Structures are given as structure tokens and as C-alpha cells.
């Protein structure tokens, strides 16, 4: 997996189960890193069921897709969609009218090797499932982020994915727990972060609280990290910083804690950007 | 006050979080080893039969899945009769 001519890192975001927040994670971590000044490419490998363009708000600017790049119909550079809000961010769209078997892990590897030469981070949005799309997505990855929710079926699928990554000799595997509701954990009705750590036994990269602002931001096609007042935004920004090697403490999830109330008050007094 | 404390404990004991954890422990152990509850019963039965051929077993023999990190192991406890 080492390539001596490049230093970009390929990060696959995967989960097994659908709907846990893979695309949201890719959109927000990539935007957050681009805002810090890094050069970031995002690659949608959910061929046939693309979403990333819509979540990033770039759906109207897509001309070519990854299958056309692989089949030689266009160059990689032509297919990359630049995000006007963040000059460092580019997206390689998925094809909507093709399917996962139209590309191979080797071909994805070639595309990633090219992207690594120009970008600091290359994110791969992996499709749900453990079939061809998953195999294509993990082929070139240096690091894997497994997204899960505190819910039994998502945890079971995450465990299966971690097992598959381990059998494929991946060492750099991290857990991101999305849609955490602290009040439900407290009332004994949701798996806690400690519970998930006990079951899955991998490094915890981040915790993202349930946040209605996420839906609002996807409606608009704006990543949540642009909304400074949301808790999910802070969580994603912290995770992005951890990816750069910074040691950032985990968010205090207790919304009713004194400090959070004070912080909320402070935020509501400040004008919105 | 006493009923309040009772309720707190009752909730903890039967909480859905606890149930989720218990169910996950079992299902993940089986998923990882590629086994099922039915296969475990068969294994347990056969292990006990093999031991019983040679030594007398007393009490409740147990064969369970235990987890060590991301790996599963078989925990076998078979009490045998002393002389």
C-alpha cells in the first residue's frame, strides 16, 4: 500500500449497514479538512446509487463520472468537480446508470494513486453491503473509518466489516459513532459509547450527536460543519482535526450540563456567521 | 423512597440498553466464529459425551463462548467426580 512518490492518505468510510451516515461523514470531514487548507479529494464509489454530489450540493456541476475516467472517455482532471466554497476540495462523482461490477479494485487503485499525488487526503464513500462495491472501496485505502449508530443491527454490521478489514490485513481501522442521543443512553434505552467500545474493540475516532441540523443542511446541500452552532458540526470538526494528528478531547454530550448551557447561551448571543 | 429505588434498579435490570448488550454479545460471538446456537448445543453435547466415556461427570457441565478482544474462545467447564 506504500507509494514512495506520494504522501496523500486514502481514507475509506464504510459501515456495512446503509443509512448510518457514511456520506454525511465523508462530506463533512472532507469539507472541514479543505477549510483548514488541505487539498482533499472525495470519491463516490456507490455506483448506481450516488449521493455524495447531492449532500455536498454539487449535483448541478457534474459532467463526467468515475466509470468514464476508468474507461478512458475523459481524463481524471476533467471529471473532478471543484467545490467553489473550498478551493482545496474536489469530488469525483459516481456513475448513476452503471453498476458496481463495472469497475474493479485494481482500477480504483490506479485512480487513487493518481489522486494521492495531488491531494493530501482522498476520501472514499463506500456503498452499503459487503459485495463488489465494498471490495472496490477498500482496495486502495490506507486507513478505514467504520461508521456505526448505537443500534444493534448497525453494530452487528460494523463488526462484520471490521472482521473483513482485519482479514484483508488492514491495521489502521477507526470507529465513528454517529447519531448518539445522550438522554436515551442515560435513561437506559440506548447503547453507550463504552458499550460499543466493548463490542467492537477498535480505536474510537469520534462521537457525533444526533442533530436535526444535519437534515436541514442536507436539504440545502451545505455540509453541517458550515453551521457553527450545531453540535454535530463541532463533532465533525474535532474528528477532522484528529485525522491531522491533533489530540482533541471528545465532546461533552450532556446537553443539560452547566457548561453546555453556558456555551449555548454564548452562541445564541453571538451573531450567526 | 423505597419504591423509587426499586424502580431505578428494575429499570436498569430490564433496560433495553442492557438487552441490546446481552443480545449483541451472543450474536457477535457467533458471527465471528461462524457458528450458531444450534451448533453450540451439538458441540457441547459431543464434548460432554467424549469426557463421560472416560470419567464420571457431576453437576452442570458448561460449554460457552467467551470473548477476548475481537476473538472468541470456547470456555469449557466440566466438573468431574472425585474418588
Automatic annotation (TrEMBL), chain B:
InterPro entries (alphabetical): MinE, MinE_sf
Bilayer-crossing regions: none
Record-linked Pfam families: MinE
GO biological process: cell division; regulation of division septum assembly
Family under the similarity heading: Belongs to the MinE family.
UniProt-recorded name of the protein: Septum site-determining protein
Source species: hydrocarbon metagenome
Amino acid at each position: 500500500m506504500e507509494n514512495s512518490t506520494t504522501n496523500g492518505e486514502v481514507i475509506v468510510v464504510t459501515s456495512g449497514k446503509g443509512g448510518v451516515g457514511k456520506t454525511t461523514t465523508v462530506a463533512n470531514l472532507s469539507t472541514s479538512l479543505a477549510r483548514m487548507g488541505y487539498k482533499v479529494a472525495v470519491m463516490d464509489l456507490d455506483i448506481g446509487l450516488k449521493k455524495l454530489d447531492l449532500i455536498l450540493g454539487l449535483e448541478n456541476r457534474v459532467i463526467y463520472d468515475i466509470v468514464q475516467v476508468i474507461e478512458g472517455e475523459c481524463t481524471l482532471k476533467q471529471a473532478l468537480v471543484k467545490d467553489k466554497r473550498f478551493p482545496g476540495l474536489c469530488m469525483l462523482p459516481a456513475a448513476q446508470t452503471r453498476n458496481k461490477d463495472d469497475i474493479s479494485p485494481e482500477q480504483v487503485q490506479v485512480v487513487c494513486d493518481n489522486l494521492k499525488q495531488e491531494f493530501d487526503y482522498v476520501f472514499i464513500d463506500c456503498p452499503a453491503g459487503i459485495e463488489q462495491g465494498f471490495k472496490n472501496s477498500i482496495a486502495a485505502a490506507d486507513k478505514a473509518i467504520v461508521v456505526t449508530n448505537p443500534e444493534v443491527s448497525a453494530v452487528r454490521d460494523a463488526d462484520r466489516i471490521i472482521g473483513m478489514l482485519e482479514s484483508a490485513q488492514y491495521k489502521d481501522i477507526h470507529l465513528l459513532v454517529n447519531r448518539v442521543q445522550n438522554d436515551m443512553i442515560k435513561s437506559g434505552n440506548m447503547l453507550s459509547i463504552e458499550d460499543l467500545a466493548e463490542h467492537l474493540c477498535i480505536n474510537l475516532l469520534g462521537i457525533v450527536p444526533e442533530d436535526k441540523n444535519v437534515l436541514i443542511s442536507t436539504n440545502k446541500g451545505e455540509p453541517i460543519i458550515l453551521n457553527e452552532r450545531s453540535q454535530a458540526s463541532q463533532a465533525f470538526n474535532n474528528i477532522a482535526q484528529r485525522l491531522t494528528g491533533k489530540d482533541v478531547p471528545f465532546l461533552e454530550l450532556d446537553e443539560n450540563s452547566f457548561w453546555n448551557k453556558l456555551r449555548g447561551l454564548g452562541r445564541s448571543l453571538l451573531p450567526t456567521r | 423512597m423505597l419504591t423509587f429505588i426499586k424502580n431505578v434498579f428494575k429499570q436498569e435490570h430490564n433496560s433495553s440498553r442492557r438487552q441490546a448488550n446481552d443480545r449483541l454479545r451472543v450474536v457477535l460471538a457467533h458471527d465471528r466464529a461462524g457458528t450458531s446456537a444450534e451448533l453450540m448445543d451439538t458441540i457441547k453435547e459431543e464434548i460432554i459425551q467424549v469426557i463421560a466415556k472416560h470419567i464420571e461427570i457431576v453437576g452442570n457441565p458448561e460449554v460457552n463462548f467467551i470473548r477476548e478482544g475481537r476473538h472468541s474462545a470456547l470456555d469449557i467447564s466440566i466438573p468431574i467426580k472425585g474418588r
